[in-house]
Design goal:
Chain A is mainly β and 114 residues long. Chain A is 0% helix and 54% strand. In chain A, strands 2, 4, 5, 9, 10 and 11 form a 6-stranded mixed β-sheet that branches. In chain A, strands 1-3-8-7-6 form a 5-stranded antiparallel β-sheet, with no helix packed on it. The chains are: A mainly beta (114), B mainly beta (113).
Protein backbone atom coordinates (compact mmCIF):
# COMPACT_ATOMS: atom_id res chain seq x y z
CA UNK A 1 0.00 0.00 0.00
CA UNK A 2 1.40 3.36 -1.04
CA UNK A 3 2.02 5.82 1.76
CA UNK A 4 2.82 9.48 1.16
CA UNK A 5 4.43 11.59 3.86
CA UNK A 6 5.02 15.31 3.98
CA UNK A 7 7.33 16.68 6.61
CA UNK A 8 7.19 19.16 8.22
CA UNK A 9 3.47 19.56 8.75
CA UNK A 10 3.94 23.30 9.15
CA UNK A 11 6.66 25.75 8.19
CA UNK A 12 7.11 29.46 8.85
CA UNK A 13 9.68 31.52 6.95
CA UNK A 14 10.45 35.22 6.46
CA UNK A 15 9.59 36.81 3.15
CA UNK A 16 12.25 36.47 0.49
CA UNK A 17 13.65 33.20 1.72
CA UNK A 18 14.09 30.24 -0.62
CA UNK A 19 12.51 27.09 0.76
CA UNK A 20 12.04 23.39 0.07
CA UNK A 21 8.99 21.28 0.79
CA UNK A 22 9.37 17.51 0.98
CA UNK A 23 7.22 14.62 -0.17
CA UNK A 24 8.18 10.98 0.45
CA UNK A 25 6.46 7.89 -0.91
CA UNK A 26 6.99 4.24 -0.09
CA UNK A 27 6.35 2.55 -3.46
CA UNK A 28 8.59 3.79 -6.25
CA UNK A 29 6.42 2.29 -9.02
CA UNK A 30 4.64 5.53 -9.82
CA UNK A 31 3.27 7.02 -13.01
CA UNK A 32 3.36 10.64 -11.96
CA UNK A 33 3.47 12.96 -8.98
CA UNK A 34 1.44 16.14 -8.71
CA UNK A 35 1.95 19.13 -6.40
CA UNK A 36 -1.06 21.16 -5.33
CA UNK A 37 -1.68 24.33 -3.39
CA UNK A 38 -4.71 24.72 -1.14
CA UNK A 39 -5.81 28.01 0.38
CA UNK A 40 -8.02 27.88 3.50
CA UNK A 41 -11.54 26.76 2.66
CA UNK A 42 -10.74 26.36 -1.02
CA UNK A 43 -10.17 23.57 -3.49
CA UNK A 44 -6.80 22.29 -4.67
CA UNK A 45 -4.93 24.17 -7.38
CA UNK A 46 -2.51 22.16 -9.47
CA UNK A 47 1.01 23.59 -9.41
CA UNK A 48 3.23 21.06 -11.16
CA UNK A 49 2.91 17.57 -12.56
CA UNK A 50 6.00 15.39 -12.95
CA UNK A 51 5.81 12.24 -15.04
CA UNK A 52 7.83 9.25 -13.84
CA UNK A 53 10.27 9.68 -16.72
CA UNK A 54 11.06 13.27 -15.73
CA UNK A 55 13.48 14.54 -13.14
CA UNK A 56 12.03 18.00 -12.64
CA UNK A 57 9.46 20.54 -13.72
CA UNK A 58 9.52 24.31 -13.40
CA UNK A 59 6.86 26.99 -13.34
CA UNK A 60 7.89 30.52 -12.47
CA UNK A 61 9.40 30.54 -8.97
CA UNK A 62 8.48 26.89 -8.43
CA UNK A 63 10.64 23.90 -9.21
CA UNK A 64 9.64 20.34 -8.44
CA UNK A 65 12.06 17.43 -8.57
CA UNK A 66 11.46 13.71 -8.54
CA UNK A 67 13.76 10.91 -7.46
CA UNK A 68 11.78 7.70 -7.89
CA UNK A 69 14.50 5.37 -6.66
CA UNK A 70 14.65 7.10 -3.30
CA UNK A 71 10.90 7.75 -3.14
CA UNK A 72 11.23 11.50 -2.85
CA UNK A 73 10.00 14.69 -4.43
CA UNK A 74 10.80 18.23 -3.44
CA UNK A 75 9.05 21.49 -4.22
CA UNK A 76 11.43 24.43 -4.27
CA UNK A 77 9.97 27.91 -3.89
CA UNK A 78 12.31 30.77 -4.72
CA UNK A 79 12.07 34.21 -3.13
CA UNK A 80 9.00 33.40 -1.08
CA UNK A 81 6.19 35.95 -0.79
CA UNK A 82 3.31 36.32 1.69
CA UNK A 83 0.97 35.27 -1.11
CA UNK A 84 2.67 31.87 -1.12
CA UNK A 85 1.15 31.16 2.28
CA UNK A 86 -1.03 28.08 1.86
CA UNK A 87 -1.02 24.33 2.38
CA UNK A 88 0.97 22.38 -0.19
CA UNK A 89 0.02 18.79 -0.96
CA UNK A 90 1.63 16.15 -3.11
CA UNK A 91 -0.21 13.26 -4.73
CA UNK A 92 1.16 10.08 -6.28
CA UNK A 93 -0.46 8.08 -9.10
CA UNK A 94 0.70 4.45 -9.42
CA UNK A 95 0.10 3.77 -13.14
CA UNK A 96 -1.70 4.96 -16.22
CA UNK A 97 -4.40 2.53 -17.38
CA UNK A 98 -7.75 1.73 -15.79
CA UNK A 99 -8.37 2.97 -12.27
CA UNK A 100 -5.46 3.58 -9.96
CA UNK A 101 -5.84 5.09 -6.55
CA UNK A 102 -4.09 8.40 -6.18
CA UNK A 103 -2.55 8.74 -2.75
CA UNK A 104 -2.33 12.19 -1.19
CA UNK A 105 -0.02 13.44 1.50
CA UNK A 106 -1.47 15.37 4.42
CA UNK A 107 0.29 18.54 3.35
CA UNK A 108 2.73 21.15 4.61
CA UNK A 109 1.17 24.37 5.84
CA UNK A 110 3.43 27.23 4.80
CA UNK A 111 3.37 30.68 6.33
CA UNK A 112 5.50 33.42 4.77
CA UNK A 113 5.96 36.30 7.17
CA UNK A 114 6.22 39.83 5.70
CA UNK B 1 -13.30 29.32 -18.94
CA UNK B 2 -12.98 25.59 -18.44
CA UNK B 3 -13.23 24.24 -14.94
CA UNK B 4 -15.13 22.48 -12.22
CA UNK B 5 -17.95 24.07 -10.27
CA UNK B 6 -19.36 22.85 -7.00
CA UNK B 7 -22.46 24.15 -5.33
CA UNK B 8 -23.34 25.26 -2.83
CA UNK B 9 -20.17 26.50 -1.15
CA UNK B 10 -21.68 26.06 2.33
CA UNK B 11 -24.46 23.66 3.25
CA UNK B 12 -26.17 23.17 6.57
CA UNK B 13 -28.46 20.25 7.33
CA UNK B 14 -30.14 18.64 10.27
CA UNK B 15 -29.17 15.14 11.26
CA UNK B 16 -31.30 12.52 9.52
CA UNK B 17 -31.70 14.46 6.28
CA UNK B 18 -30.21 13.47 2.95
CA UNK B 19 -28.37 16.17 1.05
CA UNK B 20 -27.02 16.35 -2.50
CA UNK B 21 -23.83 18.14 -3.48
CA UNK B 22 -23.47 19.30 -7.05
CA UNK B 23 -20.38 18.92 -9.25
CA UNK B 24 -20.20 20.06 -12.86
CA UNK B 25 -17.23 20.18 -15.23
CA UNK B 26 -16.77 21.57 -18.73
CA UNK B 27 -13.28 20.15 -19.27
CA UNK B 28 -14.57 17.20 -21.30
CA UNK B 29 -12.95 14.81 -18.83
CA UNK B 30 -14.22 11.26 -18.65
CA UNK B 31 -13.12 10.54 -15.08
CA UNK B 32 -14.60 12.27 -12.05
CA UNK B 33 -14.05 11.82 -8.33
CA UNK B 34 -15.44 12.75 -4.94
CA UNK B 35 -13.11 13.21 -2.00
CA UNK B 36 -13.67 14.03 1.60
CA UNK B 37 -11.20 16.17 3.53
CA UNK B 38 -11.04 16.31 7.31
CA UNK B 39 -8.57 18.36 9.40
CA UNK B 40 -5.20 16.65 9.74
CA UNK B 41 -6.07 13.90 7.26
CA UNK B 42 -5.24 13.41 3.65
CA UNK B 43 -7.96 13.37 1.03
CA UNK B 44 -10.05 10.22 1.14
CA UNK B 45 -11.80 8.88 -1.92
CA UNK B 46 -15.56 8.40 -1.66
CA UNK B 47 -16.61 7.44 -5.20
CA UNK B 48 -15.19 7.68 -8.68
CA UNK B 49 -16.52 7.38 -12.19
CA UNK B 50 -14.45 6.66 -15.27
CA UNK B 51 -17.28 6.94 -17.75
CA UNK B 52 -20.95 7.90 -18.02
CA UNK B 53 -23.36 5.47 -16.34
CA UNK B 54 -20.55 3.78 -14.45
CA UNK B 55 -19.15 4.48 -11.00
CA UNK B 56 -17.22 2.62 -8.32
CA UNK B 57 -16.88 2.83 -4.56
CA UNK B 58 -13.78 4.37 -3.11
CA UNK B 59 -12.33 3.86 0.36
CA UNK B 60 -15.16 5.43 2.37
CA UNK B 61 -18.34 4.97 0.31
CA UNK B 62 -20.62 3.91 3.17
CA UNK B 63 -23.43 6.41 3.66
CA UNK B 64 -22.87 8.07 0.27
CA UNK B 65 -24.38 7.60 -3.18
CA UNK B 66 -23.63 9.03 -6.63
CA UNK B 67 -24.95 9.06 -10.16
CA UNK B 68 -23.30 9.74 -13.52
CA UNK B 69 -26.01 10.29 -16.09
CA UNK B 70 -24.08 12.95 -17.98
CA UNK B 71 -20.39 13.35 -18.69
CA UNK B 72 -20.41 16.84 -17.19
CA UNK B 73 -22.16 16.04 -13.92
CA UNK B 74 -21.35 13.84 -10.92
CA UNK B 75 -23.61 14.66 -7.95
CA UNK B 76 -22.95 13.21 -4.51
CA UNK B 77 -25.73 12.42 -2.03
CA UNK B 78 -24.84 12.27 1.63
CA UNK B 79 -27.43 10.06 3.24
CA UNK B 80 -28.60 9.85 6.83
CA UNK B 81 -26.63 6.61 7.10
CA UNK B 82 -23.34 8.53 7.02
CA UNK B 83 -22.29 8.71 10.66
CA UNK B 84 -19.99 11.73 10.51
CA UNK B 85 -21.04 13.77 7.48
CA UNK B 86 -19.64 17.14 8.58
CA UNK B 87 -16.61 17.70 6.35
CA UNK B 88 -15.20 19.51 3.34
CA UNK B 89 -16.12 17.75 0.09
CA UNK B 90 -14.04 18.08 -3.04
CA UNK B 91 -14.94 17.05 -6.55
CA UNK B 92 -12.23 16.40 -9.11
CA UNK B 93 -11.86 15.34 -12.70
CA UNK B 94 -8.93 13.88 -14.54
CA UNK B 95 -7.40 14.41 -17.91
CA UNK B 96 -7.07 10.85 -19.16
CA UNK B 97 -5.80 11.67 -22.62
CA UNK B 98 -2.68 13.75 -22.22
CA UNK B 99 -1.20 13.77 -18.75
CA UNK B 100 -3.55 12.20 -16.22
CA UNK B 101 -3.49 15.53 -14.38
CA UNK B 102 -6.19 16.02 -11.75
CA UNK B 103 -8.26 19.19 -11.48
CA UNK B 104 -10.33 20.15 -8.45
CA UNK B 105 -13.43 22.17 -7.79
CA UNK B 106 -13.67 24.81 -5.05
CA UNK B 107 -15.30 22.45 -2.55
CA UNK B 108 -18.47 22.34 -0.47
CA UNK B 109 -18.38 22.68 3.30
CA UNK B 110 -21.16 20.52 4.77
CA UNK B 111 -22.21 20.97 8.38
CA UNK B 112 -24.73 18.60 9.91
CA UNK B 113 -26.15 19.34 13.35
Amino acid sequence: KQEVTQIPAALSVPEGENLVLNCSFTDSAIYNLQWFRQDPGKGLTSLLLIQSSQREQTSGRLNASLDKSSGRSTLYIAASQPGDSATYLCAVRPSAGGYQKVTFGTGTKLQVIP
Amino acid sequence: DGGITQSPKYLFRKEGQNVTLSCEQNLNHDAMYWYRQDPGQGLRLIYYSQIVNDFQKGDIAEGYSVSREKKESFPLTVTSAQKNPTAFYLCASRDRVSSYEQYFGPGTRLTVT
